[in-house]
Amino acid sequence: MIVTLSAVALFGLLTFVLIRSRYVGAGAALAVFLFGFFTADTGASTTIRQAIQAVLDTASNIT
């Protein structure tokens, strides 16, 4: 849960900065948001969460 909240905060901040700097338009940001929103409701969400958890576990073992 903490990792999920941190990822949401990180990606939310990144999206805000990219839109604010006009590097990414509002339409592209909306498309990416909707893609993530609808992907979370599919069977792919479990695989994506497991892959992210594996990367985080590996990163924590490096240090």
Give a description of the structure:
The structure is a single chain. With 63 residues, the protein is mostly helical. 83% of the residues lie in helices and 0% in strands. It is flat, with a radius of gyration of 14 Å. The model has no long low-confidence stretch (mean pLDDT 79).
Please outline what is shown here:
With 63 residues, the protein is an all-alpha fold.
SSE blueprint and pairings:
Blueprint (H helix, E strand, L loop, with lengths): L1 H19 L5 H14 L4 H19 L1
Mean pLDDT equals 79
Number of DSSP strands?
A: 0
Amount of beta strand: under 5%
Shape: flat
Give the terminus-to-terminus CA distance. Answer: 22 Å
State the share of residues found in helices, binned by percent.
Answer: over 70%
Order of helices and strands: HHH
Labels describing this entry:
single chain; mainly alpha; 0% strand; 63 residues
